[in-house]
Amino acid sequence: MLLCSLVFWYWFLFISVTLGLIVVEGISYVEKKEVRTLLREDPKFWTYRPFSELMVRAAADDVRFLPYIYHRMMEKLNERSLWQLAVRGALYCQCFCITENEYADWPSIPRIPDNLAVEGNVPEQEILSVLDVPPGKMGCIIGKKGASILSIKESCGAEILIGGAKGPPDKVFIVGPVRQVRKAEAILRGRMLGY
């Protein structure tokens, strides 16, 4: 469950930056440059224990701005965007934290708050669909240099994730509003059948 929590916060930050809710500027400092150089020389640099003083300073500096970023994000989020982040975070976690009991032990996806449903511009409920890809068909879905999957994403508007190195290699995850997800499912099933 810790991994799922980390996945949620990663997506929380990613979506917030993507939506322009916060602007993150890179910080350059001497230790960071030293660590990058050492990491290039030895890819196992971060596996050594105990951490050296340099490693501790670099790791601490990597996370010291997270509380600041969190508070800046929270200032800019309204109830609608908080709901969207909570839903997307929960759905993304389910993508990569596959369980045998079909998520029965997971909390339910947050429903649309009542006051958002009254405003007239009611957001669509978002869902997750998981498609099993038959052996040898993933290439048909992804296409040459990812062209097929990018085309499907653009035409549907849904987020489409491939398991690969991050999750089950034989699954495609589709996240978004119901209509967009259903459209993506139909196109992907057609690709798997060779249409």
TrEMBL record:
Domain K Homology positions: 125-193
Entry GO MF terms: RNA binding
Transmembrane region(s): 6-30
Keyword terms, alphabetized: Membrane, RNA-binding, Transmembrane, Transmembrane helix
Database matches in Pfam families: KH_1
InterPro entries, per the entry: KH_dom, KH_dom_type_1, KH_dom_type_1_sf, RNaseH-like_sf, RNaseH_sf
Listed Gene3D superfamilies: K Homology domain, type 1 (3.30.1370.10), Ribonuclease H-like superfamily/Ribonuclease H (3.30.420.10)
Name under which the protein is recorded: K Homology domain-containing protein
